[in-house]
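Quick one, tokens below. Sequence please?
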């Protein structure tokens, strides 16, 4: 999760200048794969390869058809300095563990992007002297893994530091200039009006530097969001912010806009189900948005024992689901069709009926469990989340 994740858990640097020489994106000894279509990088869900009980990417690819992964997070060393590390502790220059993950994904025809920053930890924009030094540190990552895509996750507390954000945006611009074809995304916090004051200041910094990434994504969760309706409203408002900041028309703003969600229970207790993801996906595709991703694949599985919304975890979603349910929405955004054979549903908890499924059809009298309650269908229903309502299709039968 964007919040909880901070608690869990030999390439030469290329000197870059604003008018610098184009840097070759060099692959690792095992070889970089041919770049995927940009739509796949735009659909890549986040995966922590070293923390939060990393799932097997090959199993996810086989089960869902997913091809792209957003590996997280590259930070400055915990002890200080301007060199790239995984999570502040594992130097990129000597890494073999993440490289093995990358090789596994590429061997199956997929590819990776790398996310720099995130919530918590010390970022390179905070420790490097200027934008060129920050870019040189990130170039180590691009060169090491032969990257075709990179994500700048700019949020608390770094985005409250004006100098750090100037370094990060300047570095992103330099990497974009010096690595032709590099897919660059910028991800920041979401609020009901799109993004907050610091997010808007970050956009103004990008405008002042003349930097336009492939997209600016917001994270509409951990801010009092009430399921998908609040999220699509925030996306609409963020579109207006992009229009007013950059002078774009609505269609151009949507083409540069992205959604980065959180599957299941958020850090602040919000619940985002498969039905919510479908609603936001429908919105994103209807408006030709540029990106659809989520935090995280480490969480894209049911909790054991079954939790159903009681806690937030870095390794499971706390909602009723089959493994990798949420990854399939990214696959659909990329334009592919997930395999049709459904996996075996998780067993129901003691005293509860079988877990409600957004894909199943229910008729009058059918019983399910959801949110630690049993529910009985009043009439035919599909993809309607059980909730107490005189006018809804579900009757609450009490806690289980």
């Amino acid at each position: 999760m964007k919040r909880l994740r901070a608690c869990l858990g030999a390439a030469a640097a290329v000197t870059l200048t604003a008018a610098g020489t184009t840097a070759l994106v060099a692959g690792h000894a095992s070889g970089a794969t041919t770049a995927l279509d940009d739509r796949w990088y735009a659909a890549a869900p986040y995966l922590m390869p070293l923390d939060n009980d990393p799932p097997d990417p090959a199993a996810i690819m086989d089960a869902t058809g997913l091809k792209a992964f957003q590996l997280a997070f590259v930070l400055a060393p915990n002890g200080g300095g301007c060199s790239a590390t995984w999570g502040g502790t594992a130097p990129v220059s000597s890494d073999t563990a993440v490289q093995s993950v990358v090789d596994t994904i590429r061997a199956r025809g997929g590819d990776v992007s790398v996310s720099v920053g995130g919530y918590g930890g010390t970022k390179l924009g905070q420790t490097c002297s200027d934008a060129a030094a920050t870019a040189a540190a990130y170039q180590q990552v691009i060169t090491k893994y032969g990257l075709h895509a990179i994500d700048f996750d700019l949020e608390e507390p770094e985005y409250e530091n004006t100098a750090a954000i100037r370094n990060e945006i300047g570095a992103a611009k330099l990497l974009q200039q010096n690595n032709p074809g590099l897919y660059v995304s910028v991800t920041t916090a979401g609020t009901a009006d799109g993004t907050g004051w610091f997010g808007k200041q970050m956009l103004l910094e990008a405008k002042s530097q003349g930097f336009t990434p492939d997209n600016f994504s917001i994270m509409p969760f951990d801010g009092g969001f009430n399921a998908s309706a609040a999220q699509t409203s925030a996306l609409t408002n963020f579109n207006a912010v992009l229009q007013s900041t950059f002078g774009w028309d609505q269609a151009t703003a949507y083409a540069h806009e992205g959604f980065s969600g959180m599957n299941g229970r958020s850090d602040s207790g919000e619940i985002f189900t498969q039905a919510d993801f479908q609603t936001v996906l429908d919105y994103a595709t209807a408006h030709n948005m540029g990106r659809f991703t989520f935090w995280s694949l480490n969480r894209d599985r049911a909790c054991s024992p079954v939790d159903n919304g009681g806690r937030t975890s870095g390794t499971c979603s706390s909602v009723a689901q089959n493994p990798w349910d949420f990854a399939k929405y990214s696959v659909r955004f990329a334009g592919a069709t997930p395999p049709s054979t459904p996996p075996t549903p998780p067993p129901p908890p003691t005293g509860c009926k079988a877990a409600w499924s957004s894909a199943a059809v229910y008729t009058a009298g059918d019983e399910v469990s959801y949110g630690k309650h049993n529910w009985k269908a009043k009439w035919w229903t599909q993809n309607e989340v059980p909730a107490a309502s005189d006018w809804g299709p579900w009757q609450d039968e009490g806690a289980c």
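The mean pLDDT is 89. The first helix runs from residue 38 to 42.
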